[in-house]
């Protein structure tokens, strides 16, 4: 029966699907931009209400606190994830005795971590970071009655996200380190460089585009994730200040809340549309940045010859 | 002697550095290599079979032999680059300047600074010309005007200074193949080694560059002990004072170059130098 | 012109055996790096361990709802620690914090009375104390108070909590199934086109653009599904519920396309071109060449891609939470609202009293989800490494 399918169907059908998918993405982006366009203005970024606005109030279309909150959480996450990811990859690529069981186990663990669903990270973030670590801090300080650290907060959310995106950075960095041409390492070693010097002077500088790609991908993935934040501290409206042990506002969380729980859908539409647009724009920017960096790594490889 | 060539000492003087002659400081300490019953295994395969050889100071010793006979492996034993190959095992001894390189008290990175290596295919770092030559100096803690002076003197010793003096900041990868190899030589001599190990240094180059490298080796001979692996017997005949012939990991014959080529004692040597195999 | 004082040249042997001053830096750097790497590995283990530990009581059927069923008389209130009291009253942390002492006392009185009633009723039913977290309640149907026939019921709040897991897994199965049915054919068709049919010029653009779908955050996909897909379905098909399992399934299906497409395209394009040319030279049409040569050769890679897509669909929370209707139903119709396991976790964990039976059952669900996810991904990885090993041997 398969044989009797006329041969022209195969390329047409699959082509239609492929182009439709490509078109879907583009029309998604264009559609969102078009819908959000009327509401985008300079006021949208700063807003009449300033930082203390209640973002469920439809009159204040104010993206600034959302962006600040997202930026704060992403920045803290990067502070944690960049050293953790890079050093782990350095260990796997350089310092681990080749073929050692510990290296293989570690690599396997990182892969497993990459596959854990985001809800589980939410569970872990709430149960462990907020409960055990935060609760422990409170118990130590004697604050059990009114928790200072044992509640959903910016710090715990950032740490949870860091854990979630570590595998991305590790894999990208290890790949970048391994792709540094071998004769560069050999030349440096023959000149009497120690392992640390080879790492700092030869490997890391040459692997930098790949590492940066990994970091940007990690940031991109984290900025669009909402689920772990549900447990670890995203809020709809804060007092405007950004503190480590307070809840925080977040762009992606805002989209979720406004889509599903807005008391007045019609009135909050402008904010919702602008938030969606900002989120998509941000993701696209990060993805494009990563793609450009990835392609910049190859000319350097070409240069070697 | 290098001092007989007319180098421009102007730039050095302007920086307040006085050099009596532009020679290697290490020429004060001639060093010879003694290899005794050296055997090398890569896992289960034996690459060198009880090789014994003396490389006299401040001469060029050529290692010839068909491919796969262990010439490069022998070189790598001397600066312990075989440590990088998992499963490499050594027995017997090689002493450089009286020091057994396998001695656990020896600091391997220091050894590699005093015993420099030039590779078959030039491998400059993707940095500027200056940074390439300065690399070995910087990791040794040198900096500032002393660094600049030593970079310049290394480039002069490698006969590259005149060509790159205005291009020190350019990427080293823009140089031609022959220039890159001379840059690697400059990089190696910048750290003032006593010994230079050269693994077919001119094999990947065009004839003009080969000629310049050979001239350079003749000059370097004045100041360094050179052990050179080569595939070209004519090159060995031109450059070396002593030649050793290796075959399948075994040292077949060693002696003064002219006698090896004109009156080889071992029939295998004769077959090789007359081109019957290899 | 000052001569630079020449450093005394050390003897060769001395310089080789002298310890470098900065050697300690290398040692500590190596130790630090190993430490951080071990830390990351331990963190992974910690995640799994934590979930297991929190789910353990539910797994072995020993959830302590003791404090909940032993009456605490109101004058004993002050001697009971806050956490235990909170669980006894069945309140979430935020509710508990917002009540005054007086209110808590009143509530404790009410609770004591209720428990006494229930105990009386239980004894009337033959003394079989109904522990809602007993494994039979989790899996088998039961005739709860007020229901004539045994039902599978997930109702954590209310007078008598019911924790049957079946409706949740049924919903998960529906959504994942629909997602795979929608996403996998689309992704594979696109992968076939991009790897086999498209000219190189288009391929360079098409691949990244399709993979760009992965760059759209799942909230945004949920938003679009909510605003566009759900009303369209309702208008076209005319179903009673706007938010239902079908919408969620289709949206998740689109969301898993990039993952499946990427891996399938990799697998398909690494099939050596010579094999295709050989097939064509033997008189096969392009479609036959693909069907008989390329697809079987790429089958392991494509299966791995599908498994990974399934794992992602399984764990997808955001989209499903926004458009699936979130009602734990058990009907056969695909147009019913559903509740999936990840969504249940997301919605209910914040409100579950720490350590209480609801909390334990939620962690049990999390544990099962984690295990399933890891198994699927492990299978995918295993297929790929086995294929790589076979290919490597073939090349050698």
Written account of the structure:
The complex is a heterotrimer of chains A (305), B (278) and C (396). With 305 residues, chain A is an all-alpha fold. Helix content of chain A is 73%, strand content 1%. Chain A has helices at residues 9-36, 42-46, 64-95, 101-114, 118-141, 154-178, 182-190, 195-224, 227-232, 251-261, 265-304; strands spanning 234-235, 248-249. The longest helix of chain A is centred in the last third of the chain and has 40 residues, at 265-304. Chain B is α/β, with parallel strands linked by helices. In chain B, the strands form 2 sheets. In chain B, strands 6-7-8-3-9-10 form a 6-stranded mixed sheet, with helices on both faces. In chain B, strands 2-1-4-5 form a 4-stranded antiparallel sheet, covered by helices on one side. In chain B, a hairpin with a 2-residue loop joins strand 4 and strand 5 (99-100). In chain B, helix 7 (177-190) packs parallel to helix 8 (207-220). The termini of chain C are far apart. Chain C has 3 domains: 1-60; 66-130, no CATH class; 167-395, MetI-like (MetI-like fold). Chains A and B meet through helix 7, helix 8 and helix 11 of A and helix 3, helix 4 and helix 7 of B.
Summarize the entry for a quick read:
Chain B has 278 residues and is α/β, with parallel strands linked by helices. Chain B has helices at residues 10-14, 71-78, 108-114, 129-139, 144-157, 161-164, 177-190, 207-220, 233-239, 257-262, 267-273, and strands at residues 33-42, 45-55, 60-64, 88-96, 99-100, 115-118, 195-199, 225-229, 242-247, 250-256. In chain C, strand 1 and strand 2 form a beta hairpin.
Features:
heterotrimer; A: 305 residues; mainly alpha; MetI-like fold; 2 domains; two-stranded parallel sheet; 11 helices; 73% helix; globular; C: 396 residues; 3 domains; two-stranded antiparallel ribbon; 16 helices; disordered N terminus
Secondary structure layout plus pairing:
The complex is a heterotrimer of chains A (305), B (278) and C (396).
Chain A: H1 9-36, H2 42-46, H3 64-95, H4 101-114, H5 118-141, H6 154-178, H7 182-190, H8 195-224, H9 227-232, E1 234-235, E2 248-249, H10 251-261, H11 265-304
Parallel strand pairs in A: 1-2
Helix pairs in contact in A: 1-11, 3-6, 3-8, 4-6, 5-6, 6-8, 7-8, 8-11, 10-11
Chain B: H1 10-14, E1 33-42, E2 45-55, E3 60-64, H2 71-78, E4 88-96, E5 99-100, H3 108-114, E6 115-118, H4 129-139, H5 144-157, H6 161-164, H7 177-190, E7 195-199, H8 207-220, E8 225-229, H9 233-239, E9 242-247, E10 250-256, H10 257-262, H11 267-273
Parallel strand pairs in B: 3-8, 3-9, 6-7, 7-8
Antiparallel strand pairs in B: 1-2, 1-4, 4-5, 9-10
Helix pairs in contact in B: 4-5, 4-7, 5-7, 7-8
Chain C: H1 12-17, H2 23-60, H3 66-69, H4 82-89, H5 93-98, H6 101-124, H7 135-139, E1 154-155, E2 162-163, H8 166-197, H9 200-211, H10 218-237, H11 245-269, H12 273-281, H13 286-315, H14 318-323, H15 341-348, H16 357-395
Antiparallel strand pairs in C: 1-2
Helix pairs in contact in C: 2-16, 8-11, 8-13, 10-11, 11-13, 12-13, 13-16, 15-16
């Amino acid at each position: 029966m398969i044989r009797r399918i006329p041969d022209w169907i195969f390329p047409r059908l699959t082509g239609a699907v492929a182009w439709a998918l490509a078109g879907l993405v583009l029309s998604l982006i264009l559609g969102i931009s078009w819908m959000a366009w009327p509401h985008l203005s300079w006021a949208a970024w700063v807003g009449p209400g300033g930082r203390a606005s209640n973002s469920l109030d439809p009159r204040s279309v104010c993206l600034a606190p959302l962006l600040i909150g997202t930026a704060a959480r992403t920045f803290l996450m990067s502070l944690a994830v960049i050293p953790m990811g890079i050093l782990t990859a350095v260990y796997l690529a350089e310092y681990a005795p080749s073929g050692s069981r510990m290296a293989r186990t570690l690599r396997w663990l990182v892969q497993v971590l990459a596959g854990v669903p985001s809800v589980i990270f939410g569970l872990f973030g709430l149960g462990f970071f907020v409960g055990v670590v935060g609760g422990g801090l409170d118990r130590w300080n004697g604050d059990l009655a009114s928790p200072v650290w044992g509640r959903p907060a910016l710090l715990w959310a950032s740490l949870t996200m860091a854990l979630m995106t570590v595998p991305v950075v590790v894999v990208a960095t290890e790949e970048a380190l391994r792709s540094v041409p071998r004769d560069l390492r050999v030349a440096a070693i023959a000149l009497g460089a120690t392992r640390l010097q080879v790492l700092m002077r030869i490997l890391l500088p040459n692997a930098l585009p790949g590492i940066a790609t990994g970091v940007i991908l990690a940031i991109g993935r984290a900025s669009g994730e909402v689920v772990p934040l549900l447990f670890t501290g995203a809020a709809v409206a804060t007092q405007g200040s950004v503190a480590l042990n307070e809840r925080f506002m977040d762009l992606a969380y805002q989209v979720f809340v406004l889509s599903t729980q807005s008391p007045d859908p019609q009135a909050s539409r402008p904010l919702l549309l602008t938030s969606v647009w900002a989120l998509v724009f941000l993701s696209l920017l990060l993805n494009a940045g990563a793609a450009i960096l990835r392609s910049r790594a190859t000319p350097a490889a070409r240069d070697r010859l | 002697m290098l001092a007989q060539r007319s180098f421009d000492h102007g730039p050095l003087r302007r920086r307040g550095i006085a050099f009596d002659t532009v020679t290697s400081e290490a020429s004060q300490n001639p060093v010879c290599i003694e290899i005794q019953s050296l055997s090398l295994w890569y896992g289960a395969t034996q690459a060198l079979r009880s090789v014994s050889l003396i490389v006299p100071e401040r001469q060029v010793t050529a290692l010839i032999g068909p491919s796969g006979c262990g010439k490069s492996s022998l070189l790598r034993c001397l600066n312990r680059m075989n440590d990088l190959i998992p499963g490499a095992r050594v027995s017997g001894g090689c002493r450089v300047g009286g020091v057994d390189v396998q001695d656990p008290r020896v600091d391997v990175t220091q050894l590699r600074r005093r015993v420099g290596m030039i590779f078959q295919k030039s491998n400059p770092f993707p940095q500027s010309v200056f940074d390439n030559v300065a690399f070995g100096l910087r990791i040794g803690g040198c900096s500032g005007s002393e660094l600049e002076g030593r970079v310049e003197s290394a480039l002069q010793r490698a006969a590259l200074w005149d060509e790159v003096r205005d291009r020190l900041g350019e990427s080293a990868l823009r140089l031609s193949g022959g220039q890159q190899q001379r840059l690697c030589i400059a990089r190696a001599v910048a750290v003032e080694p006593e010994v230079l190990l050269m693994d077919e240094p001119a094999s990947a180059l065009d004839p003009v560059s080969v000629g310049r490298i050979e001239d350079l080796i003749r000059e370097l001979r004045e100041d360094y002990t050179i052990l050179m692996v080569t595939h070209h017997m004519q090159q060995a005949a031109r450059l070396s004072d002593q030649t050793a012939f290796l075959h399948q990991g075994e040292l077949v014959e060693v002696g003064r170059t002219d006698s090896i080529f004109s009156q080889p004692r071992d029939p295998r040597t004769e077959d090789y130098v007359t081109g019957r195999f290899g | 012109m000052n001569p630079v004082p020449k450093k005394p040249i050390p003897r060769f042997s001395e310089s080789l055996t002298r310890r470098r001053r900065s050697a300690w830096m290398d040692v500590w750097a190596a130790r630090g790096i190993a430490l951080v790497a071990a830390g990351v590995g331990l963190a992974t283990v910690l995640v799994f361990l934590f979930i297991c530990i929190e789910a353990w009581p539910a797994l072995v059927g020993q959830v302590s709802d003791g404090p909940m069923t032993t009456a605490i008389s109101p004058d004993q209130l002050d001697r009971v620690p806050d956490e235990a009291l909170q669980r006894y009253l069945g309140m979430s942390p935020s509710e508990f914090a917002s009540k005054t002492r007086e209110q808590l006392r009143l509530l404790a009185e009410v609770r004591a009375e209720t428990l006494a009633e229930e105990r009386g009723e239980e004894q009337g039913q033959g003394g079989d104390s109904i522990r809602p977290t007993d494994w039979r309640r989790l899996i088998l149907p039961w005739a709860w108070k007020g229901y004539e026939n045994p039902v599978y019921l997930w109702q954590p709040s209310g007078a008598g909590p019911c924790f049957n897991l079946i409706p949740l897994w049924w919903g998960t199965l529906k959504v994942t199934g629909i997602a795979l049915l929608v996403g996998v054919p689309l992704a594979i068709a696109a992968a076939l086109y991009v790897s086999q049919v498209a000219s190189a010029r288009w391929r360079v653009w098409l691949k990244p653009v399709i993979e760009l779908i992965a760059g759209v955050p799942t909230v945004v996909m949920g938003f679009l599904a909510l605003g566009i897909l759900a009303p369209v379905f309702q208008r076209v098909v005319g179903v009673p519920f706007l938010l239902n399992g079908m919408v969620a399934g289709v949206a998740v299906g689109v969301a898993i396309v990039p993952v499946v497409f990427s891996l399938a395209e990799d697998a398909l394009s690494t099939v050596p071109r010579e094999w295709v040319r050989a097939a064509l030279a033997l008189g096969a049409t392009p479609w036959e060449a693909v069907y008989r040569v390329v697809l079987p050769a790429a089958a392991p890679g494509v299966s791995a891609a599908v498994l990974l897509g399934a794992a992602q669909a399984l764990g997808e929370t955001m989209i499903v939470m926004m458009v699936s209707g979130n009602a734990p139903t058990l009907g056969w119709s695909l147009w019913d609202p559903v509740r999936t396991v990840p969504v249940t976790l997301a919605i209910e964990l914040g409100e579950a009293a720490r350590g209480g039976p609801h909390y334990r059952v939620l962690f049990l669900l999390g544990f099962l989800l984690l295990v399933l996810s890891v198994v699927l991904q492990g299978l995918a990885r295993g297929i790929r490494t086995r294929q790589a090993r076979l290919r490597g041997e073939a090349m050698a």
